[in-house]
Specification:
WH_DNA-bd_sf; LysR_HTH_N; elongated; DNA-binding; transcription; D-Maltodextrin-Binding Protein, domain 2; 299 residues
Length: 299
């Protein structure tokens, strides 16, 4: 068991990038983490890590040992998960991440409904708009609202939404309504700063995707703040329809430039491929697909 523990410590050092980060995660001292690492290298008779004051890197032996150790540790974890499922009780803690707006608006009711069916599953949800590295193991599942997917992950579509451009009636009355995307350069834009498209807004013209650099006057990494700013007449915003649904229903925002919309954005549940997927993960993803199809009206 000492070897298994030392392997776990070694893999987390590689994934998190420092002894200190692993010590914080495992609630040990940095000295203890160093001790575990020294024990592992002594038992193997080879150095696994190159250490400098600024960074840690894998030796040639360390690279081979990491990938094999990671595979073995995953096999142990999957074996435990698979065996526990034989008892037909879906239980455990499921760690998920979702974008702030989508998670805040839609995920809590979905989680409530899921836990009514699976009361022994605990769910830890973080809300971040930034990219989450599933390989680091901090979450089991990441919800993405995107038109681009990274390689190496399983992505199951749970819903769809439109990406639209919106302004308040008050803004349009004061500044006019742009009829063509070229006219946006004369308007005050409210820009979401945390997307794969960086400083650009995306549209479709004659079947081709076009990027336009936003002439922004207010920017944020929080969609709710941008929707509120647009409703106050501060400018024009581009956002998924799910984020502005309440403002549209209340007449505080209206959609503009509808003819230049890109195709629907998919909302995905993403996770790493594993030989045996834990029941808490598969039941949750399957539940989300059914839940959003039947109860929220997100298309």
């Amino acid at each position: 068991m000492d070897k298994l523990n030392n392997m776990q410590v070694f893999c987390r050092i590689v994934e998190l990038g420092s002894f200190a980060a692993v010590a914080r995660e495992m609630h040990f001292s940095a000295m203890m983490i160093s001790k575990y690492m020294a024990q592992l290298e002594d038992s193997l008779g080879v150095a696994l890590l190159n250490r400098t004051t600024r960074q840690i890197s894998l030796t040639e032996a360390g690279e081979v040992y990491y990938y094999r150790s990671k595979q073995l540790l995953d096999d142990f974890s999957e074996l435990d998960e698979y065996t526990s499922q034989l008892g037909r009780h879906v239980k455990g803690t499921l760690k998920i991440n979702a974008p702030i707006d989508f998670g805040g608006i839609y995920m809590v009711p979905a989680i409530d409904a899921y836990q009514r069916e699976y009361p022994e599953v605990k769910i830890l949800m973080t809300l971040l708009n930034s990219h989450v590295n599933l390989i680091q193991g901090s979450v089991d599942l990441a919800i993405l609202v995107t038109d681009t997917l990274e390689l190496g992950v399983v992505a199951r579509k749970i819903a769809e939404t439109r990406l639209g451009t919106y302004a308040s009636p008050g803004y349009i009355a004061k500044y006019g309504k742009p009829e063509h995307i070229d006219q946006l350069k004369f308007h005050r834009c409210l820009h979401y700063v945390d997307t794969p498209h960086k400083d650009y807004w995306i549209f479709r013209v004659n079947g081709e995707e076009i990027k336009i650099k936003a002439n922004w006057h207010f920017a944020s990494n929080n969609g709710r703040a941008l929707c509120q700013a647009a409703a106050l007449g501060m400018g024009i915003t581009q956002a998924p329809e799910i984020s502005v649904a309440n403002y549209l229903a209340e007449g505080k925002l209206i959609e503009i430039l509808q003819n230049y919309r890109i195709p629907l954005l998919a909302i995905y549940a993403t996770y790493l491929q594993r030989r045996f997927l834990p029941a808490k993960l598969t039941t949750f993803v399957n539940f989300l697909i059914k839940y959003f199809a039947e109860k929220t009206g997100i298309k």
